[in-house]
Amino acid sequence: MAQVSLKHVSKTYDGGVPAVSDATLSVENREFLVIVGPSGCGKSTLLRMVAGLEESTSGELWISNKLVNHVPPKDRDIAMVFQNYALYPHMTVFDNMAFGLRLRGYSKREVEQRVHEAANILNIEPLLQRKPKELSGGERQRVAVGRAIVRKPVVFLFDEPLSNLDAKMRVQMRTEIRKLHLRLQTTMIYVTHDQTEAMTMGDRIVVMDKGVIQQVADPLTIYDHPANRFVASFIGSPPMNFLTGKIVRSGEALFFAEGTLRLRLVDEMVARLLAYEHKPVLFGIRPEDLYDKLFITDAPADCVVTSTVELVEPLGAEVYLYLRVGQHTIIARVGPHDRPEVNQDIDLVFDMGKAHFFDVETQAAII
């Protein structure tokens, strides 16, 4: 069983600079886990501690029910794919893939069998006699992955492996890596700063910020039920819109109010927001949950706000509208045929059933 467990793992560099703080995480056998966060959040440091390339300051690291804190990298039965490929320029593709096996004393026959098997999986057999300088970025990345595959490790570690590729190749390679996981059925931990990669590739996602794990869940849960404002703002493109206002009462109904903006809360939210009546809250709504009233004939009047179009960004299958609402600019993601003119006023419908609310002080999700 190729499980990976981190128990209260921390890493502090000289000078007291914390890189990872009290990380507790369990990666299940055959799971594809993605660690995502902005640059400098500690995700690569966490991965390097699993690999043994960084020593943890405290906590326990377990791989396949074995404590590995003091086990050298070569004995952890893991393979790592780096961002910069790390191929030997003077060696052929075959020799790059075979190098680690030869160091470990595998027979010539076993080496050839494993290299050709991996090359076949990755469709790089015609490239085996070429040097790295003769390969494209995508081909070099396949070779780097192939070098990991021949090891037949219990855990694969990927440290931003697609960062050096162009947009089209990134899409193709992330699909290939996901297919590779389904074929090999091996535990994989994948680090990226790209939330699209995280959402499309991971069985589960770990969101990190400032060295702290913010939330661990499957992609849809992360997207629909973010644990705090950071997760809500980091996951999703365009990002979630945020407004700070108060919960106020009018008759039997509760409203979110900010300036002239008043939006009625749906019934299922009222009980959880009663404690915030007359208190500041952070309101969030995703761009796809805002609509032009022109296309929504039955929208309740108490969830419609007049807005002014500041910018229109057509993207083919969808359009981004940048809208002025009071003192704020918010983004709506609408259909390809909804293209109002700049400076035009439109009635904007807020889907309050999809609204999010966060505590202003703790930033934690209320709803």
- Please trace the helix and strand order, writing H or E for each element: EEEHEEEHHHEHEHEEHHEEEHEEEEEEE
Query: What oligomeric state do these chains adopt?
Result: single chain
Structural class: alpha+beta
Q: Could you list the spans in which at least 5 consecutive residues all have pLDDT below 50?
A: none
Number of helices: 9
Shape: elongated
* Total count of strands: 20
Taking all Cα atoms into account, the compactness measure Rg is: 25 Å
- Provide the β-strand percentage band: 25-35%
Query: What spatial order of strands do you see in the largest sheet?
Result: 6-7-8-3-9-10
The helix content is 25-40%
* Biggest sheet features: 6 strands, mixed
Q: What is the average per-residue confidence, as pLDDT, rounded to a whole number?
A: 95
* Terminal-residue CA separation: 37 Å
Please provide a brief summary of the model:
This protein is α+β, with helices and mostly antiparallel strands.
Can you walk me through this structure?
By secondary structure, the chain is α+β, with helices and mostly antiparallel strands. It is 25% helix and 34% strand. It is built from 9 helices and 20 strands. It has helices spanning 43-51, 93-103, 108-122, 137-149, 167-184, 195-201, 219-224, 229-234, 267-273; strands at 4-13, 17-27, 32-36, 58-63, 66-67, 78-81, 155-159, 187-192, 204-209, 212-217, 241-250, 253-258, 261-264, 280-285, 290-292, 304-314, 319-325, 328-334, 345-350, 356-359. A 6-stranded mixed beta sheet has the order 6-7-8-3-9-10, with helices on both faces. A hairpin with a 2-residue loop joins strand 4 and strand 5 (66-67). Helix 2 crosses helix 3 (108-122). It is elongated. The model has no long low-confidence stretch (mean pLDDT 95).
